[in-house]
Backbone:
């Protein structure tokens, strides 16, 4: 048996230099157990391929884990000639030559300038360089293409970067997404022009057919292929995966578009890109395709492509010379032009300097798309191995430095803490109550509307409700945050249940005509950054409170039916960064089996638990708006330690006592309000008191934070399963209780952030007349620390 049966390798004279010629023997695919007969499985293609994938996946995972803070992977360099490639046995067996796989206005201006400015600088350099440096003909002809590729900012790469940094749906993230899309369009236009010019120099007939077939290609996509895909999408049941035959048809259509584009003299990616722009994103089609392709693409093929792109790159091939120096200068000015072309228009549009620098760094980042272009140029002989190595090295260095800088420079939540305090306690008790309610699915709606109805909308005290429909980003690259119309336009990509949600809130607004204003918004974003959309709407609409649904849902028998860690993460982020107060609604409407307040069949039982502190004061301020509703029976329960007097310097002047006394004074004579003051000595007594409300309660309202060393709560910290609800809220959210719970948190304050960005103190003004005025409180009562 010969040393190598699968192929023979030798050098031949190429157009520019010696090239490797591989003669591949046929029918040597599967080793079929040759190892047991003394054979070498690496003489067969399938074992080599499988071994390559194993090594690439392992090395990619390890390097990604090590370099995670830099968000980089250097798999190709490690596996290539620079390091392991020097090991002869490794190169011959695992990666032989025959075994390598082939695989808003501001945004418009920024996207255009960040492409054309580096392109103009590169072309100018190309005109100047030949007068000072003598280059080989091959290097001189490749300079324009290098300058063009060096000006690219790829849309898929930028959206992937933003998603990795959890800023895809941030303010800068949205600008970068649109700007990169504009830059991509500019690149494709330039490619079409250059391709047409090239055909002009070749043949007039080719130009004619290029002009004719270009529009025909677009017509075929829009009027033939797009309707075919839409027809397939309509037959995908909601919430289910597409059938195998549907998936195969779509893949064939994609391949046809790539083939047609290539046949017309354009990159194959251009055809698939146009097709992707012509069909709708998101579920059911987009998410189904992602489900089919995501794991094998992101987990296997992309790392393999990165690894194989580094196999032909040798860091030691970069030597001193005129060609290498010219390419290096051209690359440097390309990055400088891109950074400047982004920074200047960003500052012109009054983007803060820190954010403008972050945006400029984002637009300078490169990824797999650019790497594929470099590989293609190197394989086609447009650039040599030295220029190829310089392009990849510069991409790794710039992107590796830019990513951690972006992470430390840009914090989307910074603008929330520069905003003045917004809460129910600090608002005018006779003014408009502005509430943002967040919805993940239709099951959140009934109890949310009952809470809104209980808030007693009146003409003298109207309620502005902002409905934010939250959907996980699937099957599309860019996040969405936009206002939508409650009727006639879908709130999300799923029309059926979104229309039901809109109808429910429209009915609520009609029942309270002139007292309720409802506006709808749609957010499609990753769960990791979904809180940014919630906080953005809250900030822009100046809401007093945000109400988010709890991450657990209960079945009819009281057991936990659904538990979403992703929604829990969203709630925790909102509670940390919201520019206003936050309420977490633990919905047990189905479990309780009671009518909602809209039904009007029975009294709606509400219990307010008051233990003291900023969050309980905020909860009491909200509860004070409920007592005028004739369908509500309210039980106010103040839990106090037996020896509470010795803990108060002046009992009658404490903020908690002032609020409670004023609430009692305002509700004297109201038969629907029951006031209870319970004296307890320990956590056991607190638990016993809370147990007494179970039989007569539809909704319990309580503040989140209470002093953990209080004698009322000692021992409860050991059983705190959901810290975001606080000690009492967590206990009420267990399966032992059957009523809904609203846990209220006053606007969070971050001491570390406040030290860096001090707020301008804004005094809270209260109405000095009227039944529920809080004018007796001083300004300190509007802060979260007591």
Residues:
């Amino acid at each position: 048996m010969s040393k190598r049966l699968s192929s023979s390798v030798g050098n031949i004279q190429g157009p520019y230099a010696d090239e490797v010629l591989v003669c591949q023997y046929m029918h040597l695919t599967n080793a079929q157990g040759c190892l047991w007969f003394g054979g070498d499985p690496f003489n067969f293609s399938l074992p080599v391929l499988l071994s390559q994938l194993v090594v690439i996946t392992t090395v990619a995972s390890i390097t990604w884990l090590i370099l995670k803070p830099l968000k980089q992977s250097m798999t190709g360099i490690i596996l290539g000639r620079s390091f392991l490639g020097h090991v002869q046995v490794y190169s011959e067996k695992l990666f032989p030559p025959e075994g390598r796989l082939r695989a808003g206005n501001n945004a418009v201006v920024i996207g255009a300038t960040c492409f054309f400015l580096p392109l103009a600088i590169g072309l100018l350099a190309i005109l100047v360089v030949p007068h000072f440096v003598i280059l080989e003909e091959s290097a001189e002809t490749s300079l324009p293409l290098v300058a063009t590729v060096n000006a690219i900012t790829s849309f898929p790469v930028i959206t992937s970067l933003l998603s990795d940094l959890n800023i895809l749906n941030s303010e800068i993230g949205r600008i970068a997404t649109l700007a990169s899309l504009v830059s991509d369009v500019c690149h494709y236009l330039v490619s079409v022009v250059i391709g047409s010019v090239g055909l002009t120099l070749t043949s007039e007939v080719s130009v004619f057919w290029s002009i004719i077939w270009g529009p025909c290609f677009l017509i075929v996509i829009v009027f033939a292929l797009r309707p075919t895909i839409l027809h397939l999408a309509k037959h995908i049941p909601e919430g289910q995966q597409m059938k195998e035959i549907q998936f195969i048809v779509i893949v064939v259509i994609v391949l046809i578009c790539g083939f047609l584009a290539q046949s017309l003299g354009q990159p194959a990616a251009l055809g698939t890109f146009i097709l992707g722009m012509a069909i709708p994103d998101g579920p059911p089609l987009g998410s189904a395709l992602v489900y089919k392709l995501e794991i094998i693409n992101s987990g296997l093929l992309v790392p393999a492509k990165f690894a194989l792109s580094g196999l032909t790159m040798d860091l030691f091939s970069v030597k001193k010379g005129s060609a290498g120096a010219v390419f290096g200068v051209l690359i440097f000015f390309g990055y400088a032009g891109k950074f400047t072309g982004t920074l200047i228009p960003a500052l012109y549009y009054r983007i803060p300097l820190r954010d403008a620098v972050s945006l400029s760094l984002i637009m300078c980042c490169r990824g797999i798309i650019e790497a594929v272009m470099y590989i293609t140029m190197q394989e086609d002989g447009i650039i040599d191995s030295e220029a190829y190595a310089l392009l990849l090295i510069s991409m790794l260095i710039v992107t590796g430095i830019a990513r951690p800088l972006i992470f430390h420079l840009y914090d989307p939540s910074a603008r929330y803490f520069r905003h003045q305090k917004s809460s129910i306690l600090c608002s005018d008790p006779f003014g408009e109550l502005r509430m943002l309610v967040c919805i993940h699915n239709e099951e959140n709606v009934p109890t949310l509307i009952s809470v809104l109805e209980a808030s007693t909308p009146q003409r003298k005290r109207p309620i502005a409700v902002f409905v934010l429909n939250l959907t996980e980003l699937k099957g599309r690259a860019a996040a969405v945050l936009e206002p939508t119309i409650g009727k006639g336009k879908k709130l999300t990509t799923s029309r059926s249940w979104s229309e039901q949600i809109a109808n429910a809130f429209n009915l609520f607004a009609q029942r309270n005509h002139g007292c309720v204003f409802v506006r709808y918004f749609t957010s499609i974003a990753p769960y990791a950054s979904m809180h940014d959309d919630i906080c953005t709407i809250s900030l822009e609409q100046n809401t007093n409170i945000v109400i988010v649904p709890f991450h657990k849902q209960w079945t009819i028998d009281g057991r936990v039916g659904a538990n979403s860690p992703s929604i829990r993460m969203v709630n925790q982020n909102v509670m940390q960064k919201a520019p206003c107060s936050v309420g977490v609604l633990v919905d047990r409407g189905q479990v309780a089996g009671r009518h909602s307040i809209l039904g009007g069949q029975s009294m709606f039982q509400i219990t307010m638990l008051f233990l003291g502190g900023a969050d309980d004061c905020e909860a009491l301020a909200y509860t004070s708006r409920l007592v005028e509703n004739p369908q509500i029976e309210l039980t106010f329960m103040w839990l106090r330690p037996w020896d509470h007097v010795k803990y108060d310097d002046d009992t009658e002047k404490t903020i908690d006592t002032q609020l409670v006394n004023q609430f009692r004074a305002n509700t004297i004579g109201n038969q629907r309000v029951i006031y209870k003051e319970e004296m307890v000595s320990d956590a056991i007594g607190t638990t016993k008191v809370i147990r007494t409300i179970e039989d007569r309660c539809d909704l319990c309202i309580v503040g989140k934070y209470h002093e953990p060393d209080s004698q009322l709560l000692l021992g409860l910290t050991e059983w705190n399963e959901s810290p975001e609800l606080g000690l009492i809220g967590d206990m009420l959210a267990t399966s032992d209780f059957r009523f809904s719970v609203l846990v209220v948190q006053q606007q969070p304050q971050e001491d570390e952030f406040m030290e860096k960005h001090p707020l301008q103190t804004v005094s809270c003004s209260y109405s000095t007349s009227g039944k529920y005025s809080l004018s007796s409180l001083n300004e300190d009562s509007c802060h979260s620390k007591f």
